[in-house]
C-alpha cells in the first residue's frame, strides 16, 4: 500500500457524518496498492452500492484473500474498521441516490418494459453523474494538461468502441492541432511507435470484451515510456497495469447492449477541459478549422463558432 499513512482515521479527520467518496479515495491510491490490494479496490469499485451490506468475510471470499487482509486494507484507507466505512457509506450512497429521484419521477413507460427501462435510466443517470465527478480529481487535471501540451495526440479504438474514439479524435482536433486517429491499416501501429515519446500521447478507448491488440499496444507504450490515457468501462481494471491515467465509466444497464453514455460524457468533458486550458489558442484553432470546412463546403448554414461565442 502507500508509503505514508495518516495518523488519524478518516472519521477522526472529517467527522462521522461527513459524506465520503470511496471511489475517489481508492482511485487516488490505486498505483500504490499491492496486487492483492488492487483486487480489493477493484471489487469495492465494482460493488460500491453494495458495500454497506457486505461483511469482511463476503469481501474476502469474493476477492480470494483472507478476512484479516480486508481489515488491514480498510484501516490503511483511514477507517477505524469495516463497520466505520460501511456506516459512512450508507449516508453517502443514500444522498447520491436522492439526487436523481426527481428525474426518475418524470419518466413513465406504459408497457412491459417499464421497470427495466426505469432501472436503465437510473443507472445511466448515475453513471453520468459519476463521469462528471471525475473532473474534480487531480488525476483529471494531470491528464488534461498532458492532452493540451503534447505535440501530437494519437487516438486508438477497436471494434464497437472505434466510433467513440473516432468521434473524440475528430472533435478534439477542433480544440487543438495534431490529433490523429490511428486506424492501424499497416497492422504495426507504426505512426505511434516511431513517434517521440516525450512529445506524444496516446488515448485508448476500449470496452469489454477488450481487444488483444489494445493490451499489446499498452504494453509497448509502457516500455517506450509514452504517456497513455485509457477511457474504458468498469468490468475489468486491466488498464491500471499500464498507466495511471485510467478513466472508467459505468456502462451496465438493463438494455440489450451496455450503455456507452458515460464514456461519451467522459470524452466530451476531456475535450472541454483541454479547450478551457488552451483558452484563446483553442478558439483560434476552432476558427481555422471552421474556415477550412467552409472552404470545402462541408457545412450547411452559418458558422458554428459564431453561435458558440
Automatic annotation (TrEMBL):
Cleavable signal peptide: none
Highest taxon of the lineage: Bacteria
Domain named HTH rpiR-type: residues: 20-96
Pfam families: HTH_6, SIS
Name of the molecule in the record: MurR/RpiR family transcriptional regulator
Amino acid at each position: 500500500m502507500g508509503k505514508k499513512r495518516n495518523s488519524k482515521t478518516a472519521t477522526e479527520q472529517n467527522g462521522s457524518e461527513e459524506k465520503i467518496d470511496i471511489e475517489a479515495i481508492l482511485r487516488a491510491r490505486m498505483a500504490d496498492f499491492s496486487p492483492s490490494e488492487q483486487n480489493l479496490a477493484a471489487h469495492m469499485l465494482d460493488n460500491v452500492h453494495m458495500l454497506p451490506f457486505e461483511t469482511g468475510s463476503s469481501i474476502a471470499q469474493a476477492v480470494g484473500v483472507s478476512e484479516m487482509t480486508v481489515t488491514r486494507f480498510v484501516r490503511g484507507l483511514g477507517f477505524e474498521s469495516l463497520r466505520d466505512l460501511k456506516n459512512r457509506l450508507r449516508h453517502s450512497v443514500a444522498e447520491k441516490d436522492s439526487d436523481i429521484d426527481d428525474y426518475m419521477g418524470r419518466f413513465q413507460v406504459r408497457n412491459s418494459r417499464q421497470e427495466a427501462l426505469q432501472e436503465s435510466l437510473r443507472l445511466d443517470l448515475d453513471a453520468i453523474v459519476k463521469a462528471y465527478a471525475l473532473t474534480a480529481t487531480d488525476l483529471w487535471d494531470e491528464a488534461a494538461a498532458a492532452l493540451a501540451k503534447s505535440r501530437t495526440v494519437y487516438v486508438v479504438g477497436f471494434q464497437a468502441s472505434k466510433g467513440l474514439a473516432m468521434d473524440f479524435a475528430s472533435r478534439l482536433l477542433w480544440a487543438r492541432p495534431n490529433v490523429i486517429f490511428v486506424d492501424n491499416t499497416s497492422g504495426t501501429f507504426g505512426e505511434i511507435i516511431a513517434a517521440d515519446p516525450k512529445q506524444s500521447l496516446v488515448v485508448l478507448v476500449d470496452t469489454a470484451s477488450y481487444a488483444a491488440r489494445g493490451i499489446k499496444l499498452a504494453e509497448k507504450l509502457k516500455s517506450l515510456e509514452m504517456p497513455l490515457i485509457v477511457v474504458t468501462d468498469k468490468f475489468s481494471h486491466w488498464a491500471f497495469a499500464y498507466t495511471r491515467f485510467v478513466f472508467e465509466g459505468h456502462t451496465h444497464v438493463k438494455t440489450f447492449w451496455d450503455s456507452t453514455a458515460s464514456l461519451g460524457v467522459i470524452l466530451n468533458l476531456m475535450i472541454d477541459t483541454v479547450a478551457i486550458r488552451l483558452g484563446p489558442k483553442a478558439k483560434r484553432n476552432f476558427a481555422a478549422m471552421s474556415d477550412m470546412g467552409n472552404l470545402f463546403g462541408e457545412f450547411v448554414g452559418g458558422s458554428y463558432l459564431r453561435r458558440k461565442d
